[in-house]
Amino acid sequence: MTETTPRESFNDSGTTTQSRSTTSSAPSGSPSTVEERGPGGEAQSAAPKARLAILLSGRGSNMLALAREVREGVLQGLAEVAVVFSNIPEAAGLPSAAELGYATASIDSRGRKRAEFDAEVVAKLQQFQPDYVVLAGYMRILSPTFIRAFAGRIINIHPADTHQHQGLHAYDWAWENRLPETKITVHLVDEGLDTGPVLAQAPVDLRGADSLAEVERRGLAVEHRFYADTLARLIRGELPAETPTPAATAAPQ
């Protein structure tokens, strides 16, 4: 198991290593509040920020996009990153998160039974008391144990209309079928594979795309904006998780 906090020193990989038997102190579970000023200049406490546990398995491009929006975009004042977690200790996204000052944690999933592994992950994440678990390229199918622990609070982004394509390789599917348009879907996670209630969808214009790389580039450009926008609307209570909320068609860039 690997875990870092912003106060720890890092080795060359940006992480510190702990054995499974090591007991780490849990971070404060108190949500941060933003101080605002009333009409007379008096201090007023704004609503607590939503605490995000961001899960990834690779380089973490969506995590970095979300972190940017937390610092200076649509999630500023609404959310904070409580922890960035990976099932791959050497995932490139972990040192990137540590460089931004975020707590990181990892538990290697390789060779582990799914239910046993997820129970350990749940226990680790609960130390950070997240309001939402945000999947950002987390390449694991979650067990019922995990989903029930954070029921209604696990968010995923899928690069296709989940009614048309579930699972991996969604951009390959769009390219192989020469689709003129695909969709980015943000949804709540249930016990099926990409079957949870849709929060919002954004179309991606694929007309003129001449390679899989171009399809992926256009899709990721939308993902990186749309995920944060949808999370902000969810935190503000603007999104019932039932009917897809369309966004304006994203033109090729």
Task: Give the helix/strand layout.
Elements: E1 2-4, E2 35-37, E3 43-45, E4 50-56, H1 61-72, E5 79-86, H2 93-99, E6 104-106, H3 114-126, E7 132-135, H4 144-149, E8 154-158, H5 170-176, E9 181-188, E10 198-205, H6 212-235
Parallel strand pairs: 4-5, 4-7, 5-6, 7-8
Antiparallel strand pairs: 1-6, 2-3, 8-9, 9-10
Helix pairs in contact: 1-6, 5-6
> What is the domain total for the residues?
1
For the termini, the CA-CA separation is 41 Å
Indicate the CATH class.
Alpha Beta
> What fraction of the residues are assigned to beta strands by DSSP?
15-25%
CATH superfamily, please?
Formyl transferase, N-terminal domain
Q: What is the string of helix and strand elements?
A: EEEEHEHEHEHEHEEH
Number of strands: 10
Structure class = alpha/beta
Give me the CATH architecture, please. Answer: 3-Layer(aba) Sandwich
CATH topology: Rossmann fold
Strand order of the largest sheet: 1-6-5-4-7-8-9-10
- Low-pLDDT ranges: 6-31, 242-253
Shape label: globular
- Average pLDDT confidence is 84
Largest sheet: 8 strands, mixed
* Cα Rg: 19 Å
SS field, number of helical segments? 6
Biased composition (Low complexity): 13-33
Keywords: Purine biosynthesis, Transferase
Biased composition (Basic and acidic residues): 1-10
EC number: 2.1.2.2
